[in-house]
């Protein structure tokens, strides 16, 4: 969670963007000093600023419900996407990037910081139970309290004998941080993108996958249903069995895959920096609209 503001001393009117209030839901996922700062800075900006911009309706509702702010003070202004990001059609480029990170197709992809809020322990268990001939690639830096995730990868068990595993090469890969220059190719080569996060204020990775023509499985909580609409396969992130069934369906149902890819391309058109700028400028010049 991040709160942006100017720390110069200013007595005039101000505006602030608040991205999410994840620390309310997962206080244990932050070091004590960071948690104290997040609580103070978000509340300070919420009360000090004349106008507040929230990345999603879900974040606005959190600000009203959890921080007691007036809904009239908070406007939803969606961020935009990188206009240079697009699907990589050059198979040689995709192959080179996969080789660089040690990935063997077919693979299912997650990209974000590895931390408890991302719900990766349940995802790993669902992946093993699904018994698909795919690698599971968990790309990103290891974050605070990531040890249970690493232990699940190292010590977790397949729920059936090894002789029944559909692909003996099925495994979980941790390629680490992905260079921005490689992200589009890595996304484009994936069979599906998985984002079962317990809480998100917006959800950039989901949209980036859709830009690259990849079907998405996402959690049905926080802002993700708002951001994805009907363009992703949504699942209860606390239900491992439901996640297992969704993984199998997403890989095997070609009609569903084609529908989600098409709807994904339509969905991302809603999120442009031009539209963000227009809405933000209108707010600053004219104030919130009812």
Describe this structure in words.
- Helix 4 (91-101) packs across helix 7, helix 5 runs parallel beside helix 6 (147-155) and helix 5 (120-130) packs across helix 10.
- The strands form two sheets. The protein has a six-stranded parallel beta sheet, with helices on both faces. Strands 1-2-3-4 form a four-stranded mixed beta sheet, with helices on both faces.
- The protein is globular.
- Strand 8, helix 8 and strand 9 (216-219) form a beta-alpha-beta unit.
- The protein contains twelve helices and ten strands.
- By secondary structure, the protein is an alpha/beta fold.
Sum up the overall morphology in one term: globular
**Terminal CA distance:** 27 Å
Strand order of the largest sheet: 7-6-5-8-9-10
**Number of helical segments?**
12
What tags apply to this protein structure?
290 residues; six-stranded parallel sheet; four-stranded mixed sheet; 12 helices; 10 strands; 43% helix; disordered N terminus
Q: Mind sketching the topology for me?
A:
Blueprint: E1 3-4, E2 15-18, H1 22-25, H2 32-48, E3 51-54, H3 57-67, E4 74-76, H4 91-101, E5 107-111, H5 120-130, E6 135-139, H6 147-155, E7 172-176, H7 180-188, E8 192-195, H8 204-211, E9 216-219, H9 224-228, E10 233-235, H10 240-252, H11 254-267, H12 273-286
Helix pairs in contact: 4-7, 5-6, 5-10
Short synopsis of the structure:
43% of the residues lie in helices and 13% in strands.
